[in-house]
Known about the structure:
The protein is α/β, with parallel strands linked by helices. The protein contains 15 helices and 16 strands.
Amino acid sequence: MKSSRLRFRLIAEDGSARCAWLETAHGRVQTPAFMPVATIGVVKSVDPAELRSVGAELLLGNAYHLWLRPGPTVVEKAGGLARFTGWNGPMLTDSGGFQVFSLGSLVRVTPEGALFKSHLDGSLRFLSPEDCMTIQRQLGADLVMPLDVCPPADAPEEELRQAVNLSVEWARRSLACPLAEHQHLFAIVQGGVDRDLRVQCAQELMAEDFAGFAVGGLAVGESKEAMYRTVQLMADILPADRPRYLMGVGDPWDLLVCVGLGMDLFDSVLPTRNGRHGTVWTAEGKLNLHGAALAEDYQPLDGTCDCPACTGYTRAYLRHLFRVGDSLGWRLASLHNLRFLFRLLEGARQAIKEGRYDEYVAGWRDVLQQPGGARVPGRG
Ligand SMILES: [Zn+2]
């Protein structure tokens, strides 16, 4: 069954940066958008109402993890992932290709699929692109990703080429699988930082009718220059009327650069993982919540932020929570980091609408750019 066309309506452009509405059966999403990662159906230690209150509109789940636990049938019987998790809003499920290939459990890749050992109990499992679509149909997320082959960043060219060829074939086979009416299948462009392979992969996928295009295989250890160059290449090639999703990127400066290059969707565990480890982003730079310097610091984490951590608590108290190891600290720091990214993108969308995106990015450069950071391609 062919699902209906995904509605993606561009509302403003500034250079290559763009704002759009993405309309799903579970609600509208403003892009550029960042997706908090709910790998196994939960954004660690944070509940859906809190996510909504800090500005989340689209959540990401992982088909591979949810297949192992609790199993797609449990989720399907609950009415789908949005209802099972209590989020009740737009969701995307990643296939889990990245997890199968990165957990070190891979046994063999054949044209039929991937044979690997479960990261939970070591049992031997087989996942085909068709299995992956069946699982995602049961999970019922609005946006769905095909199973792809994800070689490491330093893989030799021949391995990258085989990964591209197999990923394209698997994406085509995925397109032939039935989804629910409200679900839309994206394609994932692979090819490492190899220009020719990226172009070949994108062109072969663009010949098919995918609802959107993801750029996979970046932020896996390549240089920032190579990452930005590849993102720019992809944004220049991929169709303007479909959403472009840069997978696994969540560093605030990278978000600003890649929005500027024309990317629309992002996901990363960075804000919540950093939060649980006691590192937060603020308008003045990074802050380490374990630092003794905060022991009697009664300011909020970030005086410009309106999140629950900043409006209700002091740095001294948050440091105390981390010292005593209470989960409230993890939750508040996670919420703050998510709010930081959502506010950053709210500002980006406003700046795009007002035609001053370059100026907006320049205003963040000193706070967010790492020392010796890479030049932003095409934007001076
Ligand atoms: Zn805050």
